[in-house]
Amino acid sequence: MLRPSERAPGLLVGEGVELPEALEIGGNVVLHSGVRVAQGGRLGDGCSVGRQPMLGPRSRASREPPGPAILEQDVSVGAGAVILAGARLGAGCVVADQAQVRERAEIGAGTVVGRGVAVDNDVRIGQRVKLQTGAYITAWSVVEDDVFVAPGVTLTNDQTMGRRRAGEELRGAVLRRGCRVGAGAVLLPGVEVGEEAVVAAGAVVTRDVAPRTVVMGVPARVVRDVAEAELLP
After folding, report:
1. CATH at 219
2. By three-state DSSP, how is residue 9 classified?
3. Which of 46, 114, 217, 218 is the most buried (most CB within 10 A)?
4. 103 with 1, same domain?
5. Residue 150 falls inside a structural domain
6. Do 151 and 86 fall within a single domain?
7. How many Å apart are CA 93 and CA 214, to the nearest integer?
8. Distances (CA, A) of 175 to 6, 56, 178, 210
9. Is 61 within a domain?
10. Distance (Å, whole) CA 188 – CA 173
11. Are residues 101 and 145 in the same domain?
């Protein structure tokens, strides 16, 4: 049950929601039951936090309640963004306008989820990651610390394109620490991009990428090693 709150214009708050004083709230924000928001954050106009997922009748996703959405200290949520129940955003995260973070996704401290990015259910994202405009991080993917994902990147998780047999699991991509994926690249289900590797813009990654290598093309192939000067400390 949602009820109006005088804390901000058009604010609707569910059962058990406690809002700290040091929290900036825009207009027409919706906070569903159980949401936990820490001090120092910002909630943009029209954002929705803690809504239960809506699953299709043939979906094989878990029907177990995902628990509350949790926003740690200094999290900023943009206008029109949607954070589902069971998502957890680490301290200092930014989720930009019209982005979506689905149930049971975990996002580490200091990570930026850009405008219109979709982070699917059961994704694990590390600290200081940059997901830029319009990227799609599919369910069951793992993104480690300090990864850069450029605009329009697509991660996939279903080799059968919706015709999986019973018991066949989805497999998202694994992006290891400090790797970089260029604009419009597509990663096939289950591929691993190694630590500090680089995937060029527009590449289609069909197999694992070794650490500290640069791949490009369709299908992606190794063209060189990553220069020492480009590596993280």
Report:
1. 2.160.10.10
2. coil
3. 114
4. yes
5. yes
6. no
7. 29
8. 44, 29, 8, 11
9. no
10. 7
11. no
**Nearest to 118, CA basis, from 92, 145, 86, 156:** 156
What is the reported pTM? Answer: 0.94
In angstroms, rounded to a whole number, what is the distance separating the alpha carbons of residues 25 and 35?
A: 14
Partners of 71 in the beta sheet? 37, 89
Enter the tokens of residue 22. 């040091």
Q: Which two tokens stand for residue 59?
A: 């979906």
Q: What is the pLDDT of residues 91-132, one digit of tens each?
A: 999 999 999 999 999 999 999 999 999 999 999 999 999 999
Q: Which of 4, 71, 11, 15 is nearest to 41 (CA)?
A: 71
**Cis bond upstream, residue 65 (ω within 30):** no
The span from the CA of 206 to the CA of 158, in Å, is 13
Same domain, 94 and 178: no
Report the number of distinct structural domains present in the chain. Answer: 2
Taking the C-alpha atoms of residue 14 and residue 35, their distance in angstroms, rounded to an integer, is: 8
d(CA 134, CA 28): 24
